[in-house]
Design a protein that fits this description.
The complex is a heterodimer of chains A (304) and B (234). Chain A is mainly β and 304 residues long. Helices cover 10% and strands 54% of the residues of chain A. The chains are: A mainly beta (304), B alpha/beta (234). At the A-B interface, helix 3 and helix 4 of A face helix 2, strand 7 and helix 3 of B.
Chain lengths: 304, 234
């Protein structure tokens, strides 16, 4: 089982094999190394010649969401991907990306670096789902460039956590661009090291960075998030942590860096424990302790 | 007896709160507990429901002669006991409709709370909204014993009557046993309980069949004097 609806995916990679590429009208999808050969202009984004990964180029308006799935299904696989996504001017594109492991104990490594270029006036709605086995390690590092008047909604959810997760994402917003980045994860027996930064470079750029992190048994979460305003722009950083076990630790470091006198950037941050009162209330409604806890965590993570 | 509390002594953080409470209820009976703030009414109902915050020092709680004193609140709920909280906690991010989906045995309800279903549970609800939400949840559980903790608190007379009507039609008329906790007593004239218990300082000081007489005594002389007017006291 790779993912539900895998047969509809446009890019399907299992372990290190590209199983399927399907090109919807107006979109070109290639293995990253082939894009490097075919289009010289991609080299300034890839920086080094990629060995694995995907290249998705939305050139014309497409009706349906673009679906990608990268899966680990064999033991001790190392995925090292370099990805590039380019969305041309004024297009509206929905993307659903799934990265997962088909079993709990495959001991895999998933490394993905990449660039996401959203050109002038384009609007991208990106749902990124991660679902891993308990022995996997995951490292994700993306750079987003939002050109003038573009918009990005990026929703990154870790449904089942790996043993270790490192993220390092950086968003740069040019004039009048807006971004809403939400990251949510619930973990147990896990170490998370999260770095997110949003750079407001252009006038009237606006960005929201929202983190919801729930730490369960023996988990360590460290989240450094930053909004940097270099122009007359607006940004808000919203970090919340929830401890669901006595042996969990959450460290959150929200930072605001402002170098323009008319910029408005704000932040809010909190870390709390699950309330006994809430648990009792729900158990008195006939939920088991686990069901009650799951409901509280899902509410905290904004899951429906 | 359908529901019995026997000589219940309860403490919290080392302080004794209930000092030997006895209560007996027949199937389908509507009883009320009146008492001033801080008399231990909410502690009693939370203990009946199994809140681990309160330690039972001695005594027993029986439902249909089954000893439930040591059961978890989850198990008590499964046996058909449902408590409407006086101050229910907000659960951020969880819509009332989602909660009902998880807990409801009965999907239909006559309680009109359409405007609340898409709101987060108890978050920024008015007093009246909280009571209607509690009733909606409780009724969805198809309970056998319903405990309503200060269901009339903070409601104006019109809302109190509305809530009383729901209790009458959806619980009393359906032969569901109801224990109503109140300190104002306003709601009693709409519900006419069969027995009024008066609780003061962690003890039930009287059980009386005439709620009007008890309310008058409280109004004229205070709660403590109820003991003298009791038909049967403990």
């Amino acid at each position: 089982m790779v993912m539900k609806g895998a047969k509809n995916t446009h890019y399907l990679q299992i372990d290190n094999n590209i199983e399927k590429i399907c090109q919807p009208k107006g979109v070109e999808i290639l293995p990253a190394e082939m894009a490097w050969q075919k289009y010289d202009w991609t080299r300034k984004y890839f920086l080094t010649k990629p060995k694995k990964g995907y290249f998705i180029w939305a050139k014309e308006q497409t009706k349906n969401p673009l679906l990608s799935c990268v899966s680990i299904s064999s033991p001790k696989i190392k995925q090292q991907m370099q990805n590039l996504l380019v969305v041309e001017n004024n297009l509206k594109v929905d993307i659903q990306g799934t990265c997962n492991s088909s079993k709990k104990n495959l001991n895999g490594l998933h490394q993905a670096t990449g660039k996401i270029l959203i050109k002038q006036g384009a609007k991208v709605n990106y749902q990124h789902i991660h679902s891993w086995g308990e022995k996997d390690a995951v490292e994700v590092s993306y750079q987003f460039l939002l050109e003038k008047d573009s918009q990005l909604n990026y929703n990154y959810r870790v449904i089942t956590p790996p043993k270790e997760l490192k993220t390092n994402n950086r968003l740069v917003l040019l004039e009048n661009a807006s971004a809403n980045l939400e990251m949510s994860a619930s973990c147990a027996e896990t170490k998370f090291d999260i770095k997110e930064s949003l750079i407001l470079k252009g006038k009237n750029a606006s960005g929201m960075l929202k983190l919801r992190l729930a730490a369960g048994k023996n988990s360590r979460i460290s989240a450094d998030s930053q909004i940097k305003a270099e122009a007359e722009a607006k940004g808000h950083l919203d970090c919340q942590g929830l401890l669901t076990d006595e042996k969990a630790v959450v460290s959150m470091v929200p930072a605001l860096v402002c170098s323009h006198p008319k910029a408005q950037i704000t932040h809010e941050a909190s870390i709390g424990r699950v309330s006994e009162e809430q648990l009792n209330y729900l158990m008195m409604r006939g939920l088991t302790e686990k069901q009650a806890l799951d409901l509280i965590i899902n509410g905290f993570l904004d899951y429906e | 007896m359908f529901f019995t509390v026997k000589n219940l002594k309860v403490s919290s953080k080392g302080k004794e709160i209930l000092k030997g409470v006895d209560l007996e209820m027949k199937k389908g009976e509507l009883q009320t507990i009146l008492g001033p703030n801080g008399s231990g009414k909410s502690v009693l109902v939370q203990t009946i429901m199994g809140n681990p915050k309160y330690q039972i020092e001695s005594g027993k709680i029986l439902l249909k002669n089954k000893d439930i004193t040591k059961l978890s609140s989850f198990s008590r709920a499964k046996l058909g006991i449902a408590l409407s909280w006086q101050n229910p906690p907000a659960i951020k991010g969880v819509k009332l409709s989602q909660l009902l989906e998880k807990i409801a045995k009965s999907k239909t309800s006559k309680i009109k709370i359409t405007g609340l279903l898409n709101r987060e549970v108890n978050l920024n609800y008015s007093g009246g909204e909280k009571k209607l939400s509690e009733l909606r949840q409780i009724l969805s559980l198809k309970p056998k014993l319903v405990i309503l903790d200060e269901i009339d608190a903070g409601l104006d007379l019109k809302k109190t009557e509305e809530v009383a009507k729901i209790i009458k039609e959806e619980l009393v008329a359906k032969n569901i046993t109801v224990l109503l906790i109140t300190h104002s007593g306003e709601i009693l004239k709409f519900l006419q309980p069969e027995i009024v218990n008066v609780m003061v300082k962690g003890r039930i000081i009287c059980r009386h069949k005439g709620y009007k007489k008890v309310l008058k005594t409280i109004k004229d002389y205070g709660y403590e004097r109820c003991k003298k007017h009791a038909l049967f006291t403990d």
